[in-house]
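Render this sequence as a predicted structure.
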Amino acid sequence: MLQTFATLLAQSPAPTTQQPPQGPNLMFIGLILFFVVFYFMMMRGNRKQKQERANLLDNLAKNDRVMTIGGLLGTIVTVRDQEVVLKVDESTNTKVTFLKSSIQKVITDGDLSSDNDR
């Protein structure tokens, strides 16, 4: 009985179809393709954010209420090429000059009401 079992194990069925070996070349191509797709997805997001920021800075106008990167709130009095003059205090008429690039966002009435809800 043991001899019959050993004979059966020694006889293996012949493979009907041979698959070509998938070597490291195919894995390397897949890895490169993954990184190319990942790179383009990241660059697309960055380009979109830069475009939105450029549009925000180009569309600044007098009497817009804005917040600077430092968190200072003010109303735009004057817009120049690279500078913005903000009125930060109504009672003393205090004005401060900033670079346009220091403007974080334009504040709308909806932004203020959502901040008060928290």
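Summary. The chain is about 45% helix and 25% strand. The chain has a mean pLDDT of 82.
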